[in-house]
Amino acid sequence: MDDPSDEELMRRIAGGDESAFRVLARRCVPPAIGLARRILANTADAEEVVQEAMLRVWTTAPRWRPEARFRTWLYRVVVNLCLNRRRRAPFARLDDVGDPADPRPDAATQMERDQRHRTIADAIARLPERQRAAIVLTYHDGLGNAEAAAVLGTTRPAVETLLVRAKRSLRQQLGPLATDDESGE
Question: Is the full-model pTM beyond 0.85?
Answer without folding.
Answer: no
